[in-house]
Amino acid sequence: QVQLVETGGGSVQAGGSLSLSCAASGYTGGTYCMAWFRQAPGKGREGVAAIDGTGRISYSDSVKGRFTLSRDIAKLALSLQMNDLESEDTAKYYCAVSNRWCVIPSRPLAETTYNYWGQGTQVTVSS
Fold first, then answer.
1. Alpha-carbon span 63 to 122, nearest angstrom
2. Which of 43, 72, 92, 104 is the most buried (most CB within 10 A)?
3. Which of 95, 6, 91 is closest to 50 using CA atoms?
C-alpha cells in the first residue's frame, strides 16, 4: 500500500519562505515520477513542480524562479522550497507519485500522470 505523508506548510507573510516535504512508503524498485500540486478554494488542482524518472524537473510558469523542487531517491522523499511567496500561492498543497516505471511522462504537471496522492498541507500567504 503506497502512502504519502506531507509535512511543512503553514502561514507566512508575502515575500516569506516555506518548505514542504513528502515521504513516500510502500514502493518496491523501479522509477517513479513525483510532483507537487496545489488547489486554491474554488479552483481546480494545479501542477506546481514535478520530477520525472530521469531527474528532469518541470515547473509551472506561476512558480518558476521562486520554487525549487528536490528529491531524495533513496528515501523516496520530495521537497519543495518556496521563496518570495505571494498571496496567490495560498492553497492546499498535495504530493503525488506515479506508478512504477514512469520515466518521461508526456504531461509531467498533469494530474493524470499520478496515481497516489497525499492528504495535503495548507499554505496561507497573507499580503
1. 17
2. 92
3. 95
